[in-house]
C-alpha cells in the first residue's frame, strides 16, 4: 500500500528533521508513504507574500486569509483526489488510535496547518472534511500537530514496520495500555525480569500480558475501560 500525504504549512522547514529519521524516513524510502510539503505563501499574490490579516469585528491576533489557502487546496485537488482534507485545530475531535487506524488505510490525505489566531472560517466550512486535535491545549501553530498525526498514521501502514505485529500490541489498539516490557540483562542490580516471560509458555505469557494491561489501564486510564 502507498499513501500520499500533502501538508500545507507556512513553515515547511520545520518538518525536515522529524521526517528525515526513523520510521517516517523508512516508510518513505520503502515507498509506502510519499509526503509533500507545500508553502502556502507560494499561493499569495501579494508582493510581500502576505497570508494573514486583521480579523473582521476586531479582536487580538491575525487570521490566515482565505484566498491563498483555497487556491493551494484547489490546485492540489485538481491533481489528486483526497480521502480527507484535515485541519489541525483545538476544536477538532481528539486524536485516538482508532482515528489513526482509520486514516492509515486511506490513499490520499491533505493536512492543513493553521497559524496565528486560526484560519478564515470559510475554509473550514467549505473545504475541510475533518478537524482533529492532538489535545486540549493551544500551540503556536499546527505544524507539530501535523507531525504527530503523520507519524501516528504512517507507522501503522502495512509494510512500514519490520515486525507487523508490533503495531498491534501498541497501547490503545485494543483500548488498553501496553503491558510492561523487559529485555537483557535478566538481573539488573537485583531487579529481575518476571519469570513468566522466560517460561516459554506462550499461552501463559499472553495471559500475563493481558492481565498486566488491564491492571495498568485500571490504575492509569480507567476511562478507557468504560
Protein model, in words:
- This protein is of the alpha/beta class and about 230 residues long.
- The chain has 2 domains: about 5-155, Alpha/beta knot; about 170-225, tRNA(m1g37)methyltransferase, domain 2 (Trp Operon Repressor, Chain A), CATH 1.10.1270.
- About 30% of the residues lie in helices and about 20% in strands.
- It is built from 7 helices and 9 strands, in the order E-H-E-E-E-H-E-H-E-H-E-H-H-E-E-H.
- The mean pLDDT is about 95.
Write the layout of secondary structure elements.
Blueprint: E1 3-9, H1 22-29, E2 33-39, E3 52-53, E4 63-64, H2 66-77, E5 84-94, H3 97-104, E6 108-113, H4 121-126, E7 130-133, H5 143-154, H6 164-168, E8 187-188, E9 191-192, H7 202-220
Helix pairs in contact: 3-5
Question: What's the quick description here?
Answer:
With 226 residues, the chain is α/β, with parallel strands linked by helices. It has 7 helices and 9 strands, in the order βαβββαβαβαβααββα. The strands form 3 sheets. Strands 2-1-6-5-7 form a 5-stranded parallel β-sheet, sandwiched between helices.
Describe the strand arrangement of the main beta sheet, using strand numbers: 2-1-6-5-7
Number of helix segments? 7
Q: Describe the sheet with the most strands.
A: 5 strands, parallel
Shape: elongated
Strand % is 15-25%
Give the proportion of residues in helices.
25-40%
Class from secondary-structure proportions:
alpha/beta
| Rg of Cα set | 21 Å
Number of domains: 2
- What is the level-2 CATH architecture name of the largest domain? 3-Layer(aba) Sandwich
Question: What is the CATH superfamily label of the largest domain?
Answer: SPOUT methyltransferase, trefoil knot domain
How many beta strands in the DSSP annotation? 9
CATH topology of the largest domain: Alpha/beta knot
Roughly how many Å apart are the termini? Answer: 34 Å
Helix and strand sequence = EHEEEHEHEHEHHEEH
List the uncertain runs.
Answer: none
